[in-house]
Amino acid sequence: MFNFAQRFIPAGYMRKLKNSELGRLNLEEYRKTEKIPLIVILDDIRSLHNIGSVFRTADAFLIEKIYLCGITATPPNKEIHKTALGATDSVCWEYRKEILPLLAELRKNGVKIASVEQAQNSILLQSFKVGKEEKLAVIFGNEVKGVDQKVVGDCDICIEIPQFGTKHSLNIAVSCGIVLWDLFKQFKF
């Protein structure tokens, strides 16, 4: 609802913060900061800009690790760096050619595996609840084909972002931002 009083806020009442006022961590401080028990898996991502954006989002939300699988490019890469803006140095990452052995390894270590996909019996993001003591890995798939069916079939759950328009897909970087923010809130607040 529109608050009539907001219309008359004096000029200068709100002011953008300077970079020096943001309280940003340096690289050493970031590495020492406790991360949330969340792993991001990018499988067969084609766009280098999407990869860089996911790194930047992972840095913002203190994600434990990113796994880059299949055809997903790895740092160092000039195009990834354009959007990552240094997050490839702060976020722990690893490349794995094959995703299914990675999922088996993570599961063996007690990690719950979730694909982010539109699928039968998926759980809508707003209904998904993660236990504070759980460790979770979320998989984002190819920009055109999504998460491969073999991978979806090997997951413990499937999380779906509800969409209400004429298009029923979101950019990987956008999807990742939505999901990571929602999960970050559950782990931290």
List strands and helices in order, with pairings.
Layout: H1 27-32, E1 36-43, H2 48-60, E2 63-69, H3 78-84, H4 87-90, E3 93-96, H5 99-108, E4 111-116, E5 123-124, E6 135-140, H6 149-154, E7 157-160, H7 172-188
Parallel strand pairs: 1-2, 1-6, 2-3, 4-6, 4-7, 5-7
Helix pairs in contact: 2-3, 2-7
Describe the structure in your own words:
The chain has 189 residues and is an alpha/beta fold. The protein has a single domain (32-188), classed as Alpha/beta knot (3-Layer(aba) Sandwich). It contains seven helices and seven strands; from the N terminus they run αβαβααβαβββαβα. A seven-stranded parallel β-sheet has the order 3-2-1-6-4-7-5, with helices on both faces. Helix 2 packs parallel to helix 3 and helix 2 (48-60) runs parallel beside helix 7 (172-188). The longest helix is centred in the C-terminal third of the chain and has 17 residues, at 172-188. The protein starts with 26 loop residues before the first helix and ends with a helix.
Structural descriptors:
7-stranded parallel sheet; 7 strands; 20% strand; alpha/beta; globular; 189 residues; 33% helix; Alpha/beta knot
Output the CATH topology. Answer: Alpha/beta knot
Structural class: alpha/beta
pLDDT average, as an integer? 94
In order across it, which strands form the biggest sheet?
A: 3-2-1-6-4-7-5
Radius of gyration: 18 Å
Please state the overall shape, judged from the principal axes of the Cα atoms: globular
Query: Which CATH class applies here?
Result: Alpha Beta
Order of helices and strands: HEHEHHEHEEEHEH
Largest sheet data: 7 strands, parallel
First-to-last CA distance:
26 Å
- In terms of per-residue confidence, which ranges show pLDDT below 50 for 5 or more consecutive residues? none
CATH architecture: 3-Layer(aba) Sandwich
Measured as a percent range, the helix fraction is 25-40%
Share of residues in strands: 15-25%
Q: Please give the count of helices.
A: 7
User: Could you state the CATH homologous superfamily?
Assistant: SPOUT methyltransferase, trefoil knot domain
Q: What's the number of structural domains?
A: 1
* Total strand segments: 7
